[in-house]
Design brief:
The structure holds 2 protein chains of 2 kinds.
Chain A lengths: L2 E8 L5 H8 L4 H16 L3 E6 L14 E4 L3 E4 L10 E4 L2 H13 L5 E3 L6 H10 L7 E6 L9 H16 L6 E7 L5 E2 L10 E2 L3 H12 L3 H7 L2 H6 L7 H11 L6 E4 L6 E6 L2
Parallel strand pairs in A: 1-8, 2-7, 2-8, 3-6
Antiparallel strand pairs in A: 1-12, 3-7, 4-5, 9-10, 11-12
Chain B lengths: L4 H4 L6 H15 L1 H9 L1 H4 L7 H8 L3 H7 L3 H9 L7 H14 L1
The chains are: A alpha/beta, B mainly alpha.
């Protein structure tokens, strides 16, 4: 049977690939992603399930899912042009995607399904840093984190639990890593941008609070405090925290190997291991 | 502070705001459309079913007004990213931040 080997949370800031190229391997972003990547390299997953919020590039308001799963064998990435990463084909894991889809529908999670789709920087930037060879196929699970009304935190946690059950019941002996992509506080191009920038961090206190709760495994508190008001206060993409919360549903009450906030940023890097 | 949730909501804005969002989004994914928006924005959006107020605000780069009408701020950002409808980052920031001062 399949087993989950690790869960990971990272940001997906589109400028980070070029920032690391510019500033080199000792800059904070490079170091943080590397400390996460070491775990992937040690645990050798066969497939990655990634919780992600599409930035209106994969889907649009003509057909906007709250929860969707992608089961294409070939996925074009990126479909947006703000990450400086060349367009390429990323492998999708059709069989695990189809299994989680069916298991979710049977268990009360009515995913939308896409068998032909592309993904934006929010999937490719994490892969660029974590599996730079792009040799581990992915199953993207999309959670609406950008266009309120957003799904409730408890619902996203339950989604993660359902995904854990689905993976545990998947017959192949595969090693599965789970990634959550996103920030806790971030405003992109909205009124709370920092002066002279296209983005801002409206709620640094919330970021610190989330990191503290994650570090102390106080999941019940985190679910209580991640309200729609709090996510709105955290920025126009503040709902990306829901990807981390779904990942926490996969974890149960497992303690993190580490969770670290990036200096002066509204996001963090975290690793949970099963061994 | 203004509650920005409704300003970005899907179900809360009118159908024609949908087209403001769609125009912004298309500038990312359709390079010919982006070029047309650069060359002659009035012509480029002529086929879209916008209200007169939306059309005026969009062509004037009044992104704060569009946000208040219900357009998604993340999508409006594409207009300044590509330097469309007379926008640059400074103007965009000024007009977008004015929303906070208004409330």
């Amino acid at each position: 049977m399949a087993e989950i080997v690790c869960a990971i949370g990272v940001p997906h800031t589109p400028s980070y690939p070029s920032l690391v190229e510019r500033e080199g391997p000792d800059c904070e972003v490079a170091r943080l992603y590397r400390s996460v990547r070491k775990n992937i390299e040690a645990l050798q997953p066969d497939v990655i399930v990634i919780f992600d919020s599409d930035h209106l590039n994969t889907f649009f308001f003509n057909n906007w899912p709250t929860f969707a799963i992608g089961t294409a064998p070939k996925i074009i990435a990126p479909n947006d042009d703000n990450s400086n990463l060349p367009k390429r084909v990323v492998q999708g894991h059709e069989a695990l995607g189809a299994h989680i889809y069916a298991s979710g529908i049977g268990g009360g999670f009515d995913f939308s399904l896409s068998q032909d789709f592309s993904v934006d920087h929010s999937v490719l930037v994490p892969l660029h840093f974590l599996t730079p060879q792009m040799n581990v196929p992915i199953v993207p699970i999309f959670i609406n984190g950008l266009a309120p009304p957003l799904p409730a935190a408890k619902r996203c946690f339950a989604l993660g639990e359902a995904v854990r059950s689905a993976i545990a019941a998947w017959p192949p002996d595969a090693r599965v890593a789970v990634i959550a992509s996103g920030s806790f506080s971030l405003e992109v191009a909205g009124p709370r941008m920092a002066p002279g920038k296209r983005s801002g961090i409206p709620d640094m206190e919330w970021t610190k609070r989330v990191v503290k709760l994650l570090g102390e495994t106080k999941i019940t508190e985190l679910l209580e405090e991640t309200t729609s008001d709090q996510m709105a206060k955290a920025g126009n993409v503040g709902g990306e925290i829901l990807n981390w919360i779904a990942m926490l549903g996969v974890l149960g009450n497992r303690k993190p190997a580490f969770v670290q906030q990036q200096t002066n940023e509204g996001h963090a890097y975290g690793v949970w291991r099963w061994d | 502070m203004k509650d920005t949730r409704t300003a970005c909501g899907v179900g809360t804005s009118g159908m024609s705001t949908y087209f403001v969002n769609a125009i912004c989004n298309r500038t990312v994914h359709d390079q010919a459309f982006r070029a047309a928006m650069k060359a002659d924005p009035e012509e480029a959006i002529s086929e879209y079913d916008l209200t007169a107020a939306e059309r005026k605000a969009l062509l004037g780069g009044q992104v704060g007004t569009l946000a208040k009408m219900g357009a998604h701020t993340f999508l409006l950002g594409h207009l300044t990213r590509y330097g469309l409808v007379g926008l640059n980052d400074e103007l965009y920031g000024e007009r977008m931040r004015a929303i906070l001062a208004d409330s």
